[in-house]
Structure formats: structure tokens, C-alpha cells
Amino acid sequence: MTPGNAGVELADRHLDLGEWAAATPDADAVFAAAVRRWLAENLTGRFAQLRGRGGPGSEHEFFAERLEWDRHLAAAGWTCLGWPVAHGGRGATLAQRIIFHQEYARANAPARVNHLGEELLGPTLIEYGTAAQCERFLPGIVDVTELWAQGYSEPGAGSDLAAVRTTAVLDADAGRWVINGQKIWTSLAHLSQWAFVIARTDPQSTRHRGLSFLLVPLDQPGVTIRPIQQITGTSEFNEVFFDDATTEAELIVGSPGDGWTVAMGLLQFERGVSTLGQQVGFARELDDLIAVAKSNGAADDPEIAARLRRARIGLMVMEANARRTLAGDIVSAAGAASVAKLLWAGWHRDLGQLAADVVGAPILLGPSHTSEGRANDLADPDHVELDDWQRLLLFTRADTIYGGSNEVQRNIIAERVLGLPREARP
């Protein structure tokens, strides 16, 4: 294989990219070119309308078509890049995984529908699951035939995950766990076939002790899913009720009572290489906002101009921190994840407010009044009449809450990294 045709072969068949990179000169550049070319050649035809669709606040848009796109990616071998080859992945290096996410974002490719399975559950099963669990579930994640939801938060246990009250009791005779309780803010549960659920399996336990990590089918009589309408008018989130729902006894990841360890391990995967791709999207939003500010005169306001410059600097800090974290130049993995969440959540929320100040009063009116927004001529019956700036303003209100609130992230840094006294808890 020569460097000139390496990228073509890479895009057309599965390879152990770790071995390939070691044998190929300038492997990362060739890999980037292969990703870029494949996206350019495939984000066409029926997939062309999906560019930029399905991001935060618009996860409902073109869902069936984006699912088809994800399966198209899978058929070409572009899913689960960093997984070991033995588990259906491609053994990509860290650098190549970063490249893929960045090129994907630069191409304005649609948001993936399988993030929870590919980036969170899959690596967790590889780390903590049994061989039988990996054999059963990993192929469905790789080829995007089974979608997953995350059953963590509850009405009384949002950021405080250790307060979980959903219970699971093992019926040894039936060989099944019987689950009762309620989960909330469950992203895309109404479109998923399975959920990984944290439940209390020791009724005498408190806090993080006595929890277990279960794999639960959602298509069963004991599960009720109710979408929650958000301020954007969309319903990504759901309530999920378990009323004597069941799952097989062997579908517990780790031992009974080890759920906290598994859950925390999964959350570390959540802050992975995809964050650098996310930042490419953030940069595009900032560039577009600067263009609006220049066109409508808002950039002539010294305060607005200064805030735009600070936003650019903040984005550079965010990227530098992400690269430092991924390179392993950190003191605490838990602290690094919390710092990253604080950086991007606060920055993105502030960008939403800055967009409101740049666009001005039209952002409060209908989409036709914000001319820089994307036209709403979509062939998608579920499309909600919001333009990009309205969606950015509204959805970023939640950035500092979901995925662990800012207050919780600061507590983690204070207690686990700085060694400060724990916050008083009831």
C-alpha cells in the first residue's frame, strides 16, 4: 500500500488503524484526507439535506433519515473507530479519532443518533461487561440497529445520582430483575430500544452503595415513556416509568452493588474525543455570529466587539484544555472532566446570550424576522419553526444543568482534586 492510495483503501474497508498508522508515512494526514473525501462524496443526494441537522435543540429533525445516515456510516466502517478490532471497532489511534470528529464537524455533517451507544455504553461494556454481554450488544451498536437511552436522573436524583430510588429486585425463580421507579430527562428514550439503568438493588443501602447497572429493554408492558416538551418546542427528553418491568438476571454489568463504579466509569467516557468535534461546531457558531454582527452593525458597539473577542479567546482555552486532557497531562481524570464541562457549558450559554444581543429584538419574533437564520423550507413534518439563533438562545439555557450541573462540577473539583471539606449533605 502506498501513501497515495492508502486513504482510498482506508475508506473502503475495515482495518486495524493502529497497525496501519505505524506502517504508513504521514498517516494522520492521509487519514484526514480519507475522512474528508468520504464525507464530501457521501453527504450528497438524499443525505445533502441533513447537513447541520439534529444538533442540540433539534434532535427530532429528520430522525429516520439521520438513522439511515448512521447506518450508511456503519456500512463504510466509520462507526466505533476507537473500539478494539476484536469488538467490531477499527482500532483507531487517539489522534485519528480526534481527526474524524473534527472533519465530521467541519463538513457540517448531521448529528449522530447513536452517541449513547457508541461513545458511552459500548466502551463501558468493553471495560466492565461480560463476554456474553459484549457479544450480544456490541454488534447492534456498531451497525446502529439498536439504540440506547440513559436511565440515570430521577425527579429526586438529578445531579445527585447517589439519591436514586428506582429499585430492582432479583426474582431468582424467574431469572429476572423486577424494576420499579421513575427516570426523567431521558434523552431519546421514545426512539430507543434499550436503556442502561441505575437502580437500587439493596433495599437497606443508602447513597452510592447498593446500586446496580442494568440493561433494560424498553419495548415491554412494564415501561411507559412520556415525552417532555422543552422551551424550544421539541421533545428530546422523556419521563420513563417502570412498573414491574423486567430484564434478564444476567443483564447486570458488574456485580450487584457495583453500579456506582460502572456508572462513574461511563461518565468518564462522556467527555471523550467528541468534545473536539463539538468545539468545531462552536467555532462555526461564533464565526457566523461575528458575520451577523458585522452585517447589522452590532460589531461597531465596543462592548459587543469585546465580548466577541473574549468568546474567541474562550474557545482557544477550551481547545487547549481538551488537548491537554486527551494527552493525559492531567492530575485527576474526574477533575479534568469537570473542568471541561464547566468550560464549554458556561461558554456556550454565554454565546447564546451574546447572540441575542447581536441579533437584537428580531430574535424574539418569528424565524422570518431573523434573516441570518436558516430557511424553514424543510421536508420534515416534525420541524419546529425556530431559526438557528433562537434555538441557540433557548437551548443553551440548559447547558450548565444537564450532564452534571455547574454546582456539582465545582464540588467535584473542590473535594476530589483540591481536597477541600465535603459539602454538608442531609
From TrEMBL:
Residues 30-143 form the Acyl-CoA dehydrogenase/oxidase N-terminal domain. GO terms for molecular function: flavin adenine dinucleotide binding; oxidoreductase activity, acting on the CH-CH group of donors. It holds the Pfam family Acyl-CoA_dh_N. Residues 149-244 form the Acyl-CoA oxidase/dehydrogenase middle domain. Its cofactor is FAD. Keywords: FAD, Flavoprotein, Oxidoreductase. InterPro entries: Acyl-CoA_Oxase/DH_mid-dom, Acyl-CoA_Oxase/DH_mid-dom_sf, AcylCo_DH-like_C, AcylCo_DH/oxidase_C, AcylCoA_DH/ox_N, AcylCoA_DH/ox_N_sf, AcylCoA_DH/oxidase_NM_dom_sf, Mycobact_Acyl-CoA_DH. Residues 257-418 form the Acyl-CoA dehydrogenase/oxidase C-terminal domain. GO terms for cellular component: plasma membrane. Belongs to the acyl-CoA dehydrogenase family. This is Putative acyl-CoA dehydrogenase. It comes from Gordonia hirsuta DSM 44140 = NBRC 16056.
